[in-house]
Design a protein that fits this description.
The chain is of the alpha/beta class. 38% of the residues lie in helices and 15% in strands. The protein has 2 domains: 139 residues, Rossmann fold (3-Layer(aba) Sandwich), CATH 3.40.50; 151 residues, Aspartate/ornithine carbamoyltransferase (Rossmann fold, 3-Layer(aba) Sandwich), CATH 3.40.50. The protein has a 5-stranded parallel beta sheet with strand order 7-6-5-8-9, sandwiched between helices. A 4-stranded parallel beta sheet has the order 2-1-3-4, with helices on both faces. Strand 3, helix 4 and strand 4 form a beta-alpha-beta unit. InterPro entries: Asp/Orn_carbamoyltranf_P-bd (IPR006132), Asp/Orn_carbamoylTrfase (IPR006130), Asp/Orn_carbamoylTrfase_sf (IPR036901), Asp_carbamoyltransf (IPR002082), Asp_carbamoyltransf_Asp/Orn-bd (IPR006131). This is Aspartate carbamoyltransferase. Keywords: Pyrimidine biosynthesis, Transferase.
Length: 308
Amino acid sequence: MSQLSSRHLLGIKDLTPADIQLILETAENFKEVINRPIKKVPSLRDITIANIFFENSTRTRLSFELAEKRLSADVVNFSSSNSSVKKGETLVDTVNNILSMKVDMVVMRHSSPGAPHFLARNVKANIVNAGDGTHEHPTQALLDAFSMREKLGDLQGKKIAIIGDILHSRVALSNIFCLQKLGAEVMVCGPITLLPKHIQSLGVKVELDVRKALAWCDVANVLRIQLERQQIKYFPSLREYSLYYGVNKKMLEELDREIVVMHPGPINRGVELASDVADSDHAIILQQVENGVAVRMAVLYLLAAVKA
């Protein structure tokens, strides 16, 4: 198979295992490209891509923009904070106005779950979901899987623990879907108040003790506490969270083997992850950032080949 089964990337849930394998294999080629002295290829020279971000983002927005420029696409950046959205313009009108300037592809982050799906039904362009509320963040899951494969090889049968604020995390859901499609076993771990009620229905193991989760897994993907999404208090204090769920060097040294530590960023140092872990040889956090560019290049390149 040399083509994706969909003309959009809305979520990992919609991708087939073959789609995921194709993206990861294509990303391997692009990783080689971005490590050359001349980091550009003319693959998307005639394509115009709009990055439309209705929520703050540093890593994801810069990563997409860099991926687009490495592929020689024309890039338009849109931020809702200084746009007509503030004057009451609808999402579809905003995007259609941008598309009337002959834009081929839209990369969108939005605070509302399902916003990219709504857009895909209403506009004529390839849509890439760069994060929709607490729903999905497909390219993050793909770059996480790519980084794990680089470190561990085939993920079939590997044990991955996702630790932290599962309830508010779009990364967790996309990772669960992606890892299961690649044959890995997944465990979620966190305070019971930060675990979605029916999370077991997704076929994951649930653990409340972080030490047991670390002893079980090959990879610990540690998530940020998303205070900006929490309207009520889910735990007494950050200090208490850190005490019971923060991953530190001492915990890793108590294990009988080495595990890989990941984090999608930004890190709350000293809360979910101690600095002596984030900066250790266990962590592949900066590799994740580097791999993000290659994976997003692969996604954009493959979607550009799938026409309406």
